[in-house]
Structures are given as C-alpha cells and as structure tokens.
Amino acid sequence: MVSYGIALSDAKMGSRIRLNRIDIQGVMRRRLLDLGFVPGNVVEVIQKSPLGDPTAYRISGTTIALRKEESSLIYGELEGEDAE
Hints:
By secondary structure, the chain is an alpha+beta fold. The protein is built from 2 helices and 6 strands. It has helices at residues 26-34, 68-71, and strands at residues 6-7, 16-22, 42-48, 55-59, 62-66, 74-78.
C-alpha cells in the first residue's frame, strides 16, 4: 500500500503540513487549487471546531474552513517540530 503521508483531517491544531496529494475531483478540486491547495504549499491547522468539523486552515495568508469529507482527501508531510 502506498502512503501519501497524513491527511489534513488527522493533523493536530498548530501542525504545518507540506501538501503532496489532493484526491478531490471536479469543481471542488478547481476551487481548492485556486485557493492555493497545490502540492508543495504548506498548510497550517489553526482551529478545530468542538466536534471536529469544520476545521480552519491557513494557506498562502488566507484562512479556509474545510469539512472533514474534503480535508480527509488532502495529504501531506508534517513539517518542523511535528515531523519528528
């Protein structure tokens, strides 16, 4: 089985993830790409709602809220202290 790293939905608050894969298709994929969710960019988890859905992420200086159904299909590698 191939591992693509950690899904955004599994990252802890404060984590920074360098994106490497987006398994979303169609209009939502285009929207995310336009917002900066492209492989190589770094996303920071900045706030999780009490029930865990949605979660706020910061990318390219913008805060974006994603539902778990979307963030569970976006993968990357932990950066900084979280990577250890």
